[in-house]
Design brief:
The complex is a heterotrimer, with 1 copy of chain A (246 residues) and 2 copies of chain B (193 residues). Chain A is mainly α. Chain A contains 8 helices and 5 strands. Chain B folds into 2 domains: 75 residues, Orthogonal Bundle (Arc Repressor Mutant, subunit A); 87 residues, Arc Repressor Mutant, subunit A. Classes of the chains: A mainly alpha (246), B alpha+beta (193).
């Protein structure tokens, strides 16, 4: 079967919970759209958003930054859909348009994956020659190298070295708004969270910085409360008000 | 078989990788392109008609002798050869995007997949299925990735154009103008489930 | 050929080492020792009588299908004549690090690249682009690598000082063509851009 989902069933009381792993938030979203049999061009965003949050909760995603970002996006679209539309307003930019485009693009790619999976499986079932002769020393074909190629490689090395001071390029500007959206989505799911729920272990410096500024900003707006029980212990992030996300 | 066909067979048996037609021609300076092609045809025909455990296939930018699939199970059971691991769904997604959009940078791949792809890119690079093919413009001049000849070989493709064209996929991108979307728009299956 | 002979051919082709007769029996639980022996005879006979570029030989404690010796010279010559090889992106990066930081040890190169470079170093050594030029201080007195005269020749440099200084690099890069073009023709993009 070509499904990317490795399903395993676990009995829980009288019903069965399907433990599924998804290849990312778009995969989960598409699966919901399919299961709920809704029109991809007219997604009932409030309903799907609720389902998405429920599924995230159910799957207890640990490294869920990507999912949180999607949750934040859905919540934002949901809010935009509620904005009053004025009669006679010709131009209405559907806030879902970008999401639909991404979903279709992703779905198209899934179709290619099915093709690759079939082709790859065919090839896996054939062996190539394994034994190769140790004739004389295998002749080395002449090398085709240009100085430009070498220099590009030098440049690549310089840029890949993660050493402060080697170069001062900031790879990405910090994104406080994005981080705020993630924190809000997180607190829409549960009453409290910890620092490492907000920032992945392997987060880039700009992500750490963004998250930090977001927490401080939300604390300032009294949307959450930060607490640290002991010095150096994990910072606890508690929902202070029913945030707009919930 | 004629002597050119025998020479080609010898060379193909000596190589674990597909041999490009150019290289096959270099085996015999006197052989015309047509003669090489007809010798390849003869060899392929011989394997098919005469009943062999191997066959000649054109893929990965060249010609390769491979075992027939019906013997794979027995060979693996007898532990004489092992099949490579299957690629994960995430790795296949990343490969699909790179195959169609190359040269493409990590950020753009992540945008389409909706998740970060750093670790998967690294493993695809290590397996030799993709490589850095250029640098992008703009901040930090990001590395751009493309597929390798080994990618073609591992997916039994002669060239990239053998992948379905975008307009041949059942889901071609439509304008997502909500007004024009018919209420009855079919909900396409994500994957056969 | 009978089906057991075909199975044997496939297994001998796919196996990285010679297979003893006893082990060949593991391929087919129903096959007697005599049946395996007669299938081997049939395969050898087929290769000999029908005119093939390969032959069945018993050596190294088992059976192998090998290229006939009369073709090896042509195959070696053709490999020499083939299109020149390109270095992978990873090999180029390693070479670049050695060029600019020589003499440098394997651990330091690995430190900069973030991955082990043993296999790549070996192939650069084999190609004669780098060589051991000194021993380092400290634990185990590590081998230190530097570039060779062949390296200079390869890049048409008279001496190492002709390499641009690091701070001149961005200018040098801007004036040079994109290094490695994608090996394969681009296909239509996934998104209707």
């Amino acid at each position: 079967m070509t499904s990317p989902h490795q399903g395993a069933s676990v009995g829980q009381g009288s019903f069965v919970v399907e433990l599924t792993t998804f290849n990312g938030p778009l995969d989960l979203l598409l699966s919901l759209i399919r299961d709920e049999k809704v029109d991809i061009y007219d997604i009932p965003i409030a309903h799907i958003c609720k389902q998405f949050l429920a599924k995230m909760h159910e799957l207890a995603m640990n490294d869920a930054a990507d999912y949180l970002e999607m949750a934040a996006r859905l919540l934002r679209i949901k809010a935009q859909m509620l904005l009053p539309r004025h009669e006679g307003e010709v131009q209405w930019d559907d806030p879902r348009a970008e999401l639909v485009r991404r979903l279709l693009e992703y779905q198209q790619m899934r179709e290619v994956v099915d093709v690759l999976e079939r082709l790859g499986e065919d090839r896996r079932n054939r062996f190539a020659r394994a034994w190769t002769p140790t004739l004389s020393a295998p002749p080395q074909a002449p090398l085709a190298l240009s100085l430009a190629e070498l220099l590009v490689a030098v440049d690549r090395v310089i840029r890949s070295v993660k050493q402060p001071g080697v170069h001062d390029v900031v790879p990405r500007a910090i994104d406080v708004d994005g981080a705020i959206a993630i924190v809000r989505a997180l607190l829409a799911l549960r009453a409290s969270a910890r620092w490492r729920d907000v920032v992945r272990d392997d987060a880039e410096p700009w992500e750490v910085l963004s998250a930090l500024l977001a927490l401080l900003e939300l604390a300032r707006r009294s949307e959450l409360k930060l607490a640290q029980n002991r010095p150096f212990s994990d910072v606890e992030i508690r929902r202070e008000l029913a945030g707009e996300a919930a | 078989m004629n002597s050119l066909a025998k020479l080609l067979e010898a060379a193909l048996f000596a190589s674990p990788r597909p041999i490009p037609t150019d290289e096959l021609r270099a085996l015999d300076a006197d052989a015309s392109k047509a003669a090489v092609q007809s010798a390849l045809d003869e060899l392929r025909e011989h394997y098919n008609v005469d009943g062999h455990g191997v066959e000649l296939v054109e893929q990965g930018g060249g010609w390769q002798v491979l075992t027939r699939p019906e013997y794979t199970e027995a060979i693996e059971r007898a532990q004489m050869a092992v099949r490579p691991h299957r690629l994960s769904g995430a790795a296949l997604e990343t490969l699909a995007i790179i195959a169609y959009r190359q040269p493409i940078g990590r950020a753009d791949i992540a945008e389409i997949r909706g998740v970060d792809v750093g670790a998967i890119l690294k493993s695809l690079l290590e397996r030799g299925l993709v490589d850095v093919v250029a640098r992008g413009e703009g901040l930090g001049r990001p590395l751009l990735y493309g597929t390798t000849p080994l990618f073609l070989e591992q997916f039994a493709l002669r060239h990239l154009e053998e992948l379905p064209r975008i307009d041949e996929l059942s889901i071609a991108l439509r304008s997502s103008e909500p007004a024009t979307a018919p209420a009855t728009a079919p909900v396409p299956a994500v994957s056969a489930a």
